[in-house]
Amino acid sequence: MKRNITKAEWQVMELLWSKGDQDSRSIVRDLAEKQGWAANTSRTLLTRLVKKKMVKVLSMGEKNIYSSIVTKEAAIRQEGEGFLEQCFGGVIEDLVVHFASRSKLSKNTIEQVKALLRSEKRK
Questions:
Q1: Of 73 and 3, which is predicted with more confidence?
Q2: Do residue 45 and residue 85 come from a single domain?
Q3: Bridge-partner residues for 68, per DSSP?
Q4: What is the tally of structural domains in the chain?
Q5: What is the mean pLDDT of residues 35-64?
Q6: What integer best gives the mean pLDDT of the chain?
Q7: Does pLDDT of 1 surpass 70?
Q8: Same domain, yes or no: 52 and 21
Q9: How far is residue 98's CA from residue 111's CA, in Å, rounded to a whole number?
Q10: Residues 50 and 80 in one domain
Q11: Residue 97 has pLDDT above 90, yes or no
Q12: Which residues pair with 23 in a beta bridge?
């Protein structure tokens, strides 16, 4: 399921991944402190994330408790695959060549890539 999320939505997810389940008041407070966002901004982002099925909400009396449905690893994979498809037509080799040709790779990074490629050949 494709769930592209914005940079602002990602900030909300980071908070939920790092702190776990949170009530809306705590989320609004933390995002105001970290991002300088108004309460309505944070609540709007939470609503969007619920609609995108990234976050679930449990009403407990006067409180709404929000929790992540999607792990950070799954979200990174999803966003990465979307980026790969959008920018490189889904061709991983083009992505690797693009970034490798524009960055100075350390010897350690080169060795890690070589090891990964060797392990892929064995599969």
A1: 73
A2: yes
A3: 55
A4: 2
A5: 96
A6: 90
A7: no
A8: yes
A9: 18
A10: yes
A11: no
A12: 65
